[in-house]
Amino acid sequence: MSNIDMTCVNAIRVLAADAIQKANSGHPGLPLGSAAMAYELWAKHMKHNGKNPKWANRDRFVLSGGHGSSLLYSLLHFFGYGLTLDDMKQFRQDGSLTPGHPEYGHTVGVEATTGPLGAGMGMAVGMAMAEAHLAAEFNRPGYEVVDHYTFALGGDGCMMEGISSEAFSLAGTLGLSKLIVLYDSNKISIEGDTDIAFTENVQARMASFGFQTITVEDGNDLEAIGKAIEAAKADKEHPSFITVKTQIGYGCPAKQGKASAHGEPLGEENVKALKENLGWPEPEKTFNIPQEVYAHYEELAAQGAAEEEKWNKLFAEYCEKFPEEKARWEKFHAPVDADALMSDESFWAYEDKAQATRNLSGIMINRIKDMVPQLIGGSADLAPSNKTMMNGESDFSKDNYAGRNLHFGIRELAMAAMANGITLHGGLRTYVATFFVFSDYTKPMMRLASLMNIPVTYVLTHDSIGVGEDGPTHEPIEQLAMLRAMPNLNVFRPADATETAAGWYLAITADKTPTALVLTRQNLPQLAGSSKEALKGAYVVSEAKDASNMDGILMASGSEVSLAVDAQAELAKEGLDVRVVSMPCMDLFEQQSDAYKASILPKNVRARVSVEALSDFGWGKYVGLDGASVCMEGFGASAPGPLLFKKFGFTVEHVVEVAKKVISDNK
């Protein structure tokens, strides 16, 4: 290796250490230990251009160990992504471009928000899946316009988390040869040596998943690291896993190899000692980077720009030779035409017969697949139950990356992470599916999707005690409240075909918000009053006879809307006039104007009852102190669904009884 190479490696270490020390907060261990492998990768093996961070054919880099964010920020700074030295000095400060963990959409060049360990590994697998699919869709002989790698860097924590095993098991099965994982193996975690809890043979595990495994004994040997990366690229049949043996906190005499290097600043004296040990000029100075370092990084960045220019010429020729593919490419990378869908009668058409909303969702998926060719998706081994198969489309597999039906196996957590990665990659819209009760398994990655403002769609079926005989382990109770509590997630529980179409319209046209479609197993009737107004989150599905002088309001979502309508009819027989409001999406309703919300739920009508076969948590803001809820107050039971609805009070008689009491108490 050249002296300038090692100087540039040490520049990463010094800058990261200074940023952390100034903030008096952060994780110096990973940046100091991994600087050499990160430099070798970014400088000599990765296609990227800081002047155009969204270049379609760039290699993707995911720092799965997101606590080591100062490593990534240092790379972005040196490689010309617009992150300034002042930005580095504001590390972990309010409003800065250098937050504690990398945040997609906030800092240019960050490919994914990686907070929870292992999440980045799952998202990297999704990115590699997207690359493989788009390459199968668009590449032509001599014109490989989609041809890039996904690199992920993480440590022992990422490998301990179960999500990495889920994701890598599928990656090996799929033979995603353009996925390359760099394992920062320093054998240290927060509590000490990893041997206290982690003694497995990681390489053997990865080999069993179907990865090529490579080991680099010295994490500072740039030549060996480079050869390992090239060997990984040379394998066209398997993803690759490169173990790089490093020392946490490398270069800091008092901290190197110790757990204390992981998650606390080195201390001013130790930072100075680090610089002295690395032979850094004027070690007493902070943020002191020699000009020769910047000059060398500029040369390296220019090589990346040249790579993009080479691709731009190839793509221009491709578009000229294959104009129909150019048109398809543009459609894949453009937003879905919301206006066209809204006015497309075939999109909103339905048969007037009782159907489960999961079945109706399946019909919508098969309509959308032809309207939105960039749609790709699947289920965690539940497609026949979730109704998520695209008819007439093939399966995505090692032998057929052109397939649009994804089979994730029974891996809900990794599935949701992969969906994030597919979406982050660009060029595709994706949905994933499981039973609603198992949204517990998907929730951490759904949270990241919401945080990243990316429009993943979650199809969550078997949404209540209507699951029936499978019993309380499979009957969701608190899950709807859990997801409704999440910011920037539209949780949509439709009541019939029109509302299901509205839910899919919302999901497929969304720009910055993921959508959870919460769907029934049991058949529901088509409602005479349902409409596209469902897109406002709540609307009057069945009006009172005298809306200006009504006695009360019944509110419901999903399968309970028809129950509320039936209860309205019974109340009318007793001379009580109520309005029925369908509320498929509280999130959307809260985005409406105060005037609209007041028109649906007039403040002077205090006799309100919510009806939902789940926890009532969240309904309080709508029923108020004077209202009531017909809801689940415990877990379900194992019995036929219709019996359970009766057992737990979801009957016309009980809703009428509760409504009468509330109306009486408010007179």
TrEMBL record:
Gene Ontology cellular component annotations, sorted alphabetically: cytosol
GO molecular function annotation: metal ion binding; transketolase activity
Recorded hits in SMART domains, A to Z, give: Transket_pyr
Superkingdom in the source lineage: Bacteria
Q: Which Pfam families match?
A: Transket_pyr, Transketolase_C_1, Transketolase_N
- Cofactor needs: Mn(2+); Mg(2+); Ca(2+); Co(2+)
Cofactor-binding details, from the entry: Binds 1 Mg(2+) ion per subunit. Can also utilize other divalent metal cations, such as Ca(2+), Mn(2+) and Co(2+). Binds 1 thiamine pyrophosphate per subunit. During the reaction, the substrate forms a covalent intermediate with the cofactor.
What role is this protein assigned?
Catalyzes the transfer of a two-carbon ketol group from a ketose donor to an aldose acceptor, via a covalent intermediate with the cofactor thiamine pyrophosphate.
For this entry, the protein name equals: Transketolase
Q: Which organism is it from?
A: Selenomonas ruminis
